[in-house]
Design goal:
Strand content: 15-25%
Number of helices: 12
CATH topology of the largest domain: Rossmann fold
Distance between the termini: 47 Å
Strand order of the largest sheet: 4-5-13-10-11-12
Order of helices and strands: EEEHEHEHEHEHEHEHEHEHHEHHE
Number of strands: 13
CATH architecture of the largest domain: 3-Layer(aba) Sandwich
Bound molecules: pyridoxal-5'-phosphate, zinc ion
Shape: globular
Length: about 425
């Protein structure tokens, strides 16, 4: 039996007669423009090796959909059903991801001299991070395409999400993580029944180990941006912001960037909303935040480059930001340039301070990556990139609870 208000997707049932169908049409290469069919598994562009992105019949959407429709739908990312790539509703595997709170941060805002500061609280997602968005969509789509075994290199949170959604879908998952990944990530991956491989090094070494495995022909590579549908799940962060702000986007978005899928996804969402005629005016300035110990995008941005260089010896407590070279770095940088945004790096010391500070000011336990975004915000206010009247959104991409080892009281504040 369904509880009143509970969605049948959450309950695991089919909604065949209730939800409208996806308007997904094809995939297009983000670099050379080559088109690829949607009905078979796809990875990267067969012509140039770059990322493929999903396209939709937006004219059809314009005719049959109104943006006001969404407010009547369920509180998960599947409310944007037409603009997601899963064709058959019965293939959707959901744990209730998305439609996360947009929290006004009045006390932190006041301290920083900002009138309209908001936190998009992604720690509320299943498996405690925004990774659930991309993985729910990608796993559902993999299931739909008949894939049975999946693998990915991960900094931790994506691996946890992959393991959980693979369990939900009955797929076999293999996750390659750095040996020093936060302990909760390692345990959750095992707990959800995935096969885990602990690798010496960072996520790039994990990708290498995965590609050199003699089992690689038996699984499908779910690496972010080498698989086209995680991006679609992450893009819903952009749809939600638009809807939560009454279809008027904020002035600045501050986003902790590793592989950059969330930032690229939001930028894609804003473009789609523009084409649909559902938003008007200027789009937000996008800000990439990285750690000083691993800041390839910041370095490339400062040099006005189109692509980044591999960051040697990457190290930071913000494990999700330890990505020495993002596969789709050209798309991250393009969004930063197009939006008149910027890229900022912060020290581990500063982000740990902000993690504690934000918890006591706002009652939000930031993950270190989200705390890095707060540290960057403070810097950008000081440098006047952000003004008092700007409407600013900081992404807390995950729950601080996943980093128990970092939740330590300040000296002299009890044990
Ligand atoms: C909590 C957290 N924040 C941010 C990131 C970076 O995300 P993206 O790959 O979308 O840049 C990660 C990636 O692992 C993460 O786990
Ligand atoms: Zn191409």
């Amino acid at each position: 039996m369904l509880l009143r208000g509970a969605s049948s997707i959450l309950a695991g049932g089919s909604r065949k007669n209730f939800l409208p169908k996806s308007l997904f049409t094809q995939l297009r290469c983000s670099a050379c423009g080559e088109i690829f069919p949607a009905h078979v598994p796809q990875t990267v562009c067969a012509a140039c090796g770059k990322a493929l992105v999903a396209e939709y019949d937006l004219d059809g959407a314009k005719r049959q959909l109104s943006r006001d429709e969404f407010s009547k739908r369920e509180g998960s990312l599947w409310r944007y059903r037409e603009l997601l790539p899963v064709m058959d509703d019965s293939m959707i595997r959901s744990l209730g991801e998305g439609w996360t709170p947009l929290l006004a941060a009045r006390r932190l805002g006041k301290e920083l001299g900002l009138r309209s500061l908001f936190i998009k609280e992604e720690g509320c997602n299943p498996t405690g991070s925004f990774k659930a968005r991309g993985i729910s969509v990608a796993v559902s789509r993999a299931l739909e395409l008949g894939i049975r075994e999946i693998a990915m290199p991960s900094a931790g949170n994506a691996g946890g999400a992959l393991a959980a959604y693979a369990a939900r879908a009955g797929l076999k998952a293999h996750v390659f993580v750095p040996r020093d990944t936060p302990v909760v990530n390692i345990r959750e991956i095992r707990f959800y029944g995935a096969e885990i491989y602990l690798i010496d090094g960072d996520i790039s070494d994990c990708a290498k180990a995965m590609n050199q495995s003699d089992r690689r022909s038996s699984w499908f590579d779910m690496s972010t941006m080498k698989e086209p549908y995680r991006l679609e799940g992450k893009k819903t962060m952009g749809f939600e912001l638009a809807e939560q702000f009454g279809w008027e986007l904020p002035d600045v978005i501050i986003y902790p960037t590793g592989g950059g899928t969330g930032l690229i996804g939001m930028w894609k969402a804003f473009r789609e909303l523009e084409q649909l005629g559902w938003i008007k005016g200027k789009k937000p300035r996008m800000v990439t935040v990285q750690a000083e110990g691993c800041a390839p995008i910041v370095r490339a941005f400062k040099a006005r480059k189109k692509e980044s260089q591999f960051w040697e010896g990457a190290q930071t407590v913000a494990s999700g930001l330890r990505v020495p070279k993002a596969f789709a770095d050209h798309l991250i940088l393009e969004a930063l340039y197009d939006s008149a945004g910027c890229a900022v790096s912060v020290s581990d010391e500063n982000l740990l301070l902000e993690m504690r500070r934000a918890a006591s000011l706002e009652g939000i336990l930031f993950c270190p990556e989200g705390a890095a975004a707060v540290a960057a915000l403070r810097q950008l206010v000081r440098e006047r990139f952000i003004a008092a009247e700007d409407r600013v959104v900081v992404y807390n991409t995950g729950s601080g609870y996943k980093y128990a080892e970092l939740i330590v009281p300040a000296a002299g504040n009890g044990g």
